[in-house]
Amino acid sequence: MMLKHTPFPLLPYRFLLWGLISYIVIETLGVLVLQYMGDLQEQTVIMSMRLLELIAFIIFIHKFNALSNLGLNMPKQDSLYVFLNIAAICLMGAALLYVLQPKWFAYITLPAWLHGISGLLLMVVLAPIVEELIFRGLLYRMLRERWGIFISVAASAAFFSLVHHGMLLSPQLIGGIIFALAYEWSRSLWVSIALHMGANAAVYELVVLGLAA
């Protein structure tokens, strides 16, 4: 698979602006609500935040006609080929790593609010969709238009890692690189969403089955 140096279609400026504003506002309000309500309602608050962010993006995508520009139309055969190739490579890599260094998987944990059916829905469905819209559809595309592929992949992945863990080096850094490259290669946000869903589902299964302990 070769990197495409041809640019993406330009996203409407107002879509980028309102998408960024809505994300910042909802995240800020969520943090404030969590401070008031405490850990007991953490799952409910975060679920509400992701739903609001998803609704906001749906509204802005429709209003500014950004569906095809984002790569959210029906995936083409080439996009499916990219997905299958990357998914197979990631699966083989993870299996090999588990065989060679099973102790590394002992560090995989989930916060208490991600357990249960609601936690599964949040982690495997809502979070991948919303995060791909934000980090690849919004952040990566903004960087890509100005700085090109390599800087944009690295910067968006670094920000993805920092938001999740507050540190640069984390599994999310690798995930961010893979998802951004998948988006670049396929030009379909559905490909990065599907890979993100698969990765989160694998982590959830490892924890639930006790394979990460």
What features would you highlight for this structure?
213 residues, mainly alpha, single chain, 75% helix
**Which value, in Å, is the CA radius of gyration?**
17 Å
| Biggest sheet character | none
Question: How many helices does DSSP assign?
Answer: 8
Question: Which sequence of SSEs, written as H and E, runs from N to C?
Answer: HHHHHHHH
Apparent shape? globular
Q: Residue ranges: pLDDT <50 for 5 or more in a row? A: none
The oligomeric state is: single chain
SS-derived structural category: mainly alpha
* Mean pLDDT figure: 87
**Cα distance spanning the termini:** 36 Å
Tally of extended strands? 0
Overview of this structure, please?
- With 213 residues, this protein is an all-alpha fold.
- It has one domain.
- It has 8 helices and no strands.
- α4 (77-100) packs antiparallel against α7, α5 runs antiparallel to α6 (149-165) and α5 packs antiparallel against α8 (189-208).
- The chain is globular and about 45 Å long.
- The N and C termini lie far apart (36 Å).
Provide a compact summary of the structure.
This protein is mostly helical. The protein has helices at 13-37, 42-63, 67-70, 77-100, 116-147, 149-165, 171-186, 189-208. Helix 4 packs parallel to helix 8, helix 5 runs antiparallel to helix 6 (149-165) and helix 5 packs antiparallel against helix 8.
